[in-house]
Automatic annotation (TrEMBL), chain A:
The gene is fdhE. One of its GO terms (cellular component) is cytosol. It comes from the Bacteria. One of its GO terms (biological process) is protein maturation. Residues 21-183 form the FdhE N-terminal domain. Belongs to the FdhE family. NCBIfam families: FdhE (TIGR01562). Residues 226-310 form the FdhE C-terminal domain. It comes from Teichococcus oryzae. It is found in: Cytoplasm. Keywords: Cytoplasm. GO terms for molecular function: ferric iron binding. CDD domains: FdhE (cd16341). Residues 187-225 form the FdhE central domain. This is Protein FdhE homolog.
Length: 313, 199
C-alpha cells in the first residue's frame, strides 16, 4: 500500500486560529549558522560580495563561539521578574557591558578571527583592538551597549558588536519567551534595542505576521503590520522599493525587501517579505540590500533600523 | 519609541561630509562604490498596504490591500494583491475562498459601480444618476406604502406594518450605519428586513 493510505484527516489542523507568538528567542548557534549561510549565498555574484563573504566568515566564527561551553549563567530570576513587572528589558545592557563573561567572549572572538581574510583596514582595526588597554576597551564596550558608535572607530566597534551579539544572544536564549512583555513600539522586549529590520514570516501559525528583529540579541518580536517602528504611528505609512528606471511595471517581480516609510516622523525601516522568500535573514539581507539604503539617502526619510554592520546610511 | 534616530542624526552631522560608513571603515569602499554605481540608474517605486474590512459577510474579516503606487504621493494606486490581515483579531490572517478572491471582485469588469436601471420591457440595464435612482426608489416606495400599509391588525390594534416591500442591507457596515439603517426600515414599518444589526 502506498504511504498516503495511512493519512487520516485531522480536523484540528484546520479551523483553529493560533495567535502568533509575541517573541521568538534565538537559538544562538543556529541563528549565526543560518546567518553565515545566508551571507555566503548572497555573496554569489553580488556587487557587495567581498563584504558579504567577510561577514559570512564572521558569522561562522560567531556560530562556533555560540556553541562553545561554558554556557553563560542565566539572567537572575529576580532581575527578570522585576523587569517584567515594570515593563523594562530583562537583559540589562549596562550589566552585560561590565561583565567578565563578555570580556572573555570578546577575547575568544578576536582570537578566532585571526585566520579570517579581511582588508588591511579591517586587519589593522582588529590588531589595535587586541592591543587596546582595558580603559579604551571599556569605553568602546559602553558605546556598543548604547548603540552609539563613534564614526572615527567604526571598524573596531564592528568587531566588538559582533562579539557582544554572541554573548547577548546566549543570554537571551536563557529567558522564557512566553514570559516576555511588550515594552514599546520598536523596542526589543529582551534588551530594549531598536530593530535592524522587520520580517513578514510565513511559518505555520504566524502566516503574514510581522516580527521586528533585534541585531543585538537576536530576538524577534511581533509588531503590528503597517506601523512605523520608530514612532508607532499607523498614519501615513508607505513602502518604497528599488526598480529599474525603464521598468513599465508589467512584468516586474514584486520586491521582497522594501523600505517602510513613515510620514509622521520621516523615518524608515526595512521590511523583508519572508512569506514570499523564506531565505531572507534580517541582518544578512539588511546588509545585502545596501542599494536600497543608498537610494533612500536621496529622500526626506532617515533610516531608523540599527545594524552594526551597516552604519552611516 | 526607537531613540536611535537622534543619535544617528548626530553621527551624520558630526561626520561633516566625511563618508563614515561601516564599509568604508572596514576597507570595503570599492564594493560600496560598485553598489552605488549599480543602483544609480534605478528609482524608488511606491507601494502601499492598506487595512480594510472584507465586504462579503457579517464576520467582517480584516484584510490588507496591496497596491502599486501611492495616492498620497499623487500617484494612481492599482490593487495588486489582497490577503488576510494577520493582526486582525477576527480572522488572524485567514480568509474564506470568497474573501481570498477579493482582488477579482475589486477588478471585475462586471462590478456594479453606478446605479443601473432596467426599464419595463427592456432587456438591458442602463446607467442612471444617483438623483434619478433615489427619486425613483422613493416614488415607488411611497406608492407601495400608501397602497398597502397596515395601520391596524385584525383586532383593531394600532400597528406599523408594511409587508409588501422588503429590504436587505449591507453586511460590512459599522455599528452606527447598522443602527441608522434599522431605524429607517422600522420607522417605515418594513417587516421583511435583514441587516448587520441582526448579528
Amino acid at each position: 500500500m502506498s504511504s498516503s493510505s495511512g493519512l487520516q484527516p485531522d480536523p484540528s489542523m484546520i479551523g483553529r486560529l493560533v495567535k502568533p507568538a509575541f517573541a521568538l528567542l534565538p537559538d544562538p548557534p543556529s541563528l549565526f549558522r543560518q546567518r553565515a549561510e545566508r551571507f555566503a549565498m548572497l555573496a554569489e555574484g553580488h556587487d557587495l560580495a567581498p563584504y558579504l563573504s567577510f561577514l559570512g566568515a564572521l558569522a561562522a566564527v560567531q556560530a562556533d563561539l555560540a556553541a562553545r561551553p561554558p554556557a553563560p549563567t542565566p539572567l537572575p530570576a529576580e532581575q527578570v521578574e522585576r523587569a517584567r513587572a515594570n515593563a523594562m528589558p530583562p537583559l540589562d545592557r549596562a550589566a552585560l557591558g561590565a561583565s567578565a563573561g563578555l570580556r572573555g567572549t570578546i577575547a575568544q572572538f578576536l582570537e578566532a578571527l585571526e585566520p579570517v581574510d579581511m582588508p588591511a583596514q579591517a586587519a589593522e582595526a582588529l590588531r589595535s583592538l587586541r592591543q587596546a588597554p582595558p580603559s579604551v576597551l571599556d569605553e568602546m564596550i559602553g558605546n556598543v551597549m548604547g548603540d552609539a558608535i563613534p564614526f572615527e572607530t567604526l571598524a573596531q566597534h564592528l568587531f566588538l558588536s559582533a562579539a557582544a551579539q554572541v554573548q547577548a544572544a546566549r543570554l537571551a536564549a536563557t529567558l522564557e519567551a512566553d514570559r516576555l512583555v511588550p515594552l514599546d513600539t520598536g523596542l526589543c522586549p529582551v534588551c530594549g534595542g531598536p530593530p535592524a529590520s522587520s520580517i513578514v514570516v510565513g511559518h505555520q501559525g504566524a502566516e503574514g505576521a510581522r516580527y521586528a528583529a533585534c541585531a543585538f540579541c537576536g530576538t524577534r518580536w511581533n509588531e503590528v503590520r503597517i506601523k512605523c517602528l520608530a514612532c508607532g504611528s499607523t498614519k501615513g505609512v508607505g513602502y518604497k522599493s528599488a526598480e529599474a528606471a525603464d521598468d513599465q511595471g508589467g512584468t516586474a517581480v514584486e520586491a521582497t525587501v522594501k523600505a517602510e516609510c513613515c510620514d509622521s516622523c520621516r523615518s524608515w525601516v526595512k521590511i523583508l517579505y519572508a512569506d514570499r522568500n523564506p531565505s531572507l535573514e534580517p541582518v544578512a539581507d539588511d546588509v545585502a540590500s545596501l542599494g536600497l539604503d543608498l537610494l533612500m539617502q536621496d529622500t526626506e526619510y532617515r533610516r531608523a533600523g540599527f545594524d552594526p554592520f551597516l552604519i552611516g546610511y | 519609541m526607537n531613540m536611535e534616530l537622534s543619535r544617528r542624526g548626530f553621527l551624520k552631522a558630526t561626520g561633516a561630509g566625511v563618508a563614515a560608513t561601516s564599509l568604508g571603515a572596514m576597507g570595503f569602499g570599492a564594493a560600496e562604490a560598485a553598489v552605488a554605481a549599480h543602483v544609480r540608474p534605478m528609482k524608488l517605486a511606491n507601494t502601499t498596504e492598506t487595512r480594510n474590512t472584507c465586504p462579503y459577510c457579517s464576520v467582517a474579516c480584516g484584510i490588507i490591500i496591496y497596491s502599486k503606487g501611492d495616492v498620497r504621493k499623487g500617484e494612481q494606486a492599482d490593487v495588486v494583491h489582497i490577503e488576510g490581515d494577520a493582526d486582525h483579531p477576527t480572522n488572524l490572517g485567514t480568509l474564506c475562498p470568497k474573501g481570498a478572491a477579493l482582488k477579482d471582485f475589486v477588478q471585475a469588469p462586471t462590478r456594479l459601480k453606478h446605479p443601473m436601471i432596467r426599464k419595463p420591457g427592456s432587456d438591458k440595464f442602463e446607467q442612471v444618476s444617483w438623483d434619478v435612482a433615489l427619486d425613483r426608489i422613493a416614488r415607488l416606495m411611497k406608492d407601495d406604502r400608501d397602497a398597502n400599509f397596515l395601520a391596524a391588525n385584525a383586532d383593531g390594534l394600532a400597528v406599523n406594518r408594511w409587508t409588501t416591500t422588503g429590504m436587505l442591507a449591507a453586511s460590512a457596515t459599522t455599528n452606527e450605519t447598522a443602527w441608522t439603517t434599522f431605524k429607517v426600515a422600522k420607522a417605515l414599518g418594513i417587516v421583511g428586513f435583514d441587516n448587520q444589526a441582526r448579528v
